[in-house]
Write a structure and sequence with these properties.
alpha/beta; 2 domains; four-stranded parallel β-sheet; 9 helices; 9% strand
Length: 226
Amino acid sequence: MTIYGYARISRPQQSIDRQIRNIKACNANAVIIQEAYTGTKMDRPKWIRLYSRVREGDTIIFDSVSRMSRNAEEGFAMYEELFNRQVCLIFLKEPHINTDTYRKALQGGIPTTGTDVDYILDGINNYLLALAKEQIRLAFEQAEKEVQDLHQRTAEGIETARLAGKQIGQKPGSKLTTKKSVQAKEIILKHSKTFSGNLNDIDCMKLAGISRNTFYKYKRELVQVY
């Protein structure tokens, strides 16, 4: 039996350290699987490999349900499938939907009596089971709603800035200057035959580590200046 920890961020520039620290605090021996990928999609490469790899008795620890999925329907379906495969799921922020809790709800019904009262007891047990399942579904729906709310707030913020006359994004015709572009242009100036170097275009773009289109774009910009 293997214990995994799955940590996910949406963009590479975000920090994943907090999730890993929380997972390790829960189980120091957890095998950490981490990736930068949106949670609204389930076809994340490392998640799919982990999902295919886990076997009965294995455990996956998540910092929160949103790390598993921000798509309510797909997330809930995958939860049930892993549950049926006897894989243990632990959500540090939402322990009430851990698979062990769900399993206890399935097994911990009120004992029947063999009398007519059982009709009532069966109804209560079915209600408790439905309630446990609904809690899991609601947790995934909340994770999906959080990302929807974020998108809406972002769109509203952009619209507010636009109405206030602020420039949104890069101005038309302006050139975006980055550290990488500056370094690439310095290499072109120094090594390209077009300027003071002795390398042809192919060798120069390899040295600069940029694509063909980017190379010729930078070269045109440099020709206009030098």
